[in-house]
Amino acid sequence: MNDGLTASVEKMRREGLGDAAVANFEHYYRRLRDGDAGTLPEAELDPVEELPDAGDLPEPGDDLAALLDRTIVLKLNGGLGTSMGMTQAKSLLPVKGEHSFLDVIVRQVLTLRERSGARLPLVLMNSFATRDDSLEALRAHDGVEADVPLDFVQNKVPKLLADGLTPASWPDDPSKEWAPPGHGDLYTALAGSGMLEQLRTAGYRYAFVSNADNLGAVLEPRILAWFAAQEVPFAMEVTDRTEADKKGGHLARRKDGGGLVLREIAQTPDEDVDAFQDITRHRFFNTNSLWLDLDALQATLDAQDGVLGLPMIVNRKTVDPGDKSSPEVIQLESAMGAAIDAFAGAQAIRVPRTRFLPVKTTNDLLVVRSDAYALDDEFRLQLASGRTAAPLVDLDADHFKLVRDFDAHLPAGPPSLVGCDRLTVDGDVTFGADVVCKGTVVVEASEPRTIPDGTVLEG
Predict the structure, then answer these.
(1) H-helix or E-strand containing 111?
(2) Three-class SS of residue 55?
(3) How far apart are the C-alpha atoms of 135 and 152, rounded to whole Å?
(4) How far apart are CA 241 and CA 245, in angstroms?
């Protein structure tokens, strides 16, 4: 090992990170040191033309209950929602009335568990920052615990100085010396934490994996039955790309061997960005909802000495993201969907847009909190009757980007959006109670303005 790798590994050992985490970091460090830029050029890829469609799948057969009994629901819960000014797990944010994302997820799982009689555990992949609060919130729900632990913790990796590839030091806030290794760490953390072994020992074979902030990602029995019957080791849910998804990871096929691959914008050479963002060429967008055969994962890890070797993402930032004058660093990351390239026989399946409802901004939060969506008796998030698509919302970032400001400008809750196509707010606008938006609404304010209670906004 060179000095930078030696110092990085020693730092990880001092932090208590396990063998699996260290081995994966070493793998990516060596690739970086040897000149791997972590790119997937357009010249090496072909577009994907046709895929199986979830809408064409038959209803599951009599073996569904047995399948569900061997399945877990795994939610990625490591995010703090820092882009919205939060300092705790985003999943604890109220999203429908008093229900948080995590409350809704728990009720989805418990309802399906009750109706099927299956064990169906809910397992979280937490970060060090989200674990305590999330477990406390989970345990407030009677009956949520199953026969395996409620969570495991994702790893972290040292940030590397771009000049010299040695571990960065930032004494003012040592926590900023560490970075998340991307959600591709799922597989390393599952194995290294012992959770994979515990799940398989308890008789679980299948995992439905999705982000905690995507309430559209609910276990779909028809997809589970297809996944098991086809003996697919890994499947990615994809949906049709729109202009809003131009920067998101898309599915492609390698020219050299025909295998499926996920390409992220950070892996795209500058000269290929236009091709990356061409939604007519690369038509399918990764929803980050996956189906995983745990036996196949263990076999693949065993065959590769515990390192899946996912395509690398080289993320360049400053050691203190809030201080652009601080030293430039490299964060070595991978995406969990990139494992589609690591399993022989992996597939993708096209799903409707209704299964992709992530909340990344307060624009998304307003839509989901509003009456444009409702929870059904299985705690699934459904568009209100008569709607075929969600309204488009664009709130003034100066006044609505942070959750505390968003809530302050909506003290009585969201306006009615059930009859709204688009809402644009430009300026410092506070909404009163029972405000109704219809059609296309633009609200502009050059100085602080309050919309009175009961106002109907149209045009």
Answers:
(1) helix 101-116
(2) helix
(3) 11
(4) 6
Task: Tell me the pLDDT band of 277, cut-offs 50, 70 and 90.
Answer: very high
Closest by CA to 330, choosing from 211, 446, 162, 215, is 162
Q: Judge whether 436 and 457 are in contact, CB under 8 Å.
A: yes
Domains of the chain, by residue range, sit at 3-355, 362-458
2 — pLDDT class (breaks 50, 70, 90): low
Q: Please give the pLDDT value at position 159.
A: 97
Q: Is residue 13 within 8 Å of 22, Cβ to Cβ? A: yes
- Tell me the C-alpha distance between 366 and 118, whole Å: 35
Contact at 8 Å (CB) between 227 and 235? Answer: yes
370-392 pLDDT per residue, tens: 999 999 999 999 999 989 999 99
Fold exhibited by the domain 3-355? Spore Coat Polysaccharide Biosynthesis Protein SpsA; Chain A (3.90.550)
Whether the domain at 3-355 and the domain at 362-458 fall into the same CATH topology: no
Selection from 233, 220, 243 nearest residue 354 by Cα? 220
Query: Letter for the amino acid at 257?
Result: G
Instruction: Compute the distance between CA of residue 282 and CA of residue 267 in angstroms, rounded to an integer.
Output: 15
Whether pTM > 0.90 for this model: the answer is yes
| C-alpha–C-alpha distance, residues 154 and 80, integer Å | 14
Query: Which whole number is the average pLDDT over 70-97?
Result: 93
Q: DSSP for 382-414?
A: EEPTT-SSPPEEE--HHHHSSHHHHHHH-TT-P
Residue pair 101/93 in contact (Cβ under 8 Å)? The answer is: yes
Nearest-10 crossing angle of helices 131-138, 101-116: 40
Query: How many CB atoms neighbour CB 304 within 10 A?
Result: 12
Confidence (pLDDT) at 87:
85
Q: H helices within 243-315, ranges in order?
A: 273-276, 294-303
Asked whether the beta carbons of 144 and 110 are under 8 A apart, the reply is: yes
The first and second tokens of residue 222, run together, are: 């028809």
Assigned token pair, 151: 């969570």
Region of 139 on the Ramachandran plot (φ > 0 left; ψ -120 to 50 alpha; else beta): alpha
Class of domain 362-458: mainly beta
Residue-level pLDDT at 459: 78
Radius of gyration of the chain measured on its C-alpha atoms: 23
**Alpha carbon distance 18, 152 (integer Å):** 13
Tokens read off for 302: 């065993």
- Is residue 176 very low, low, confident or very high in pLDDT (cuts 50, 70, 90)? very high
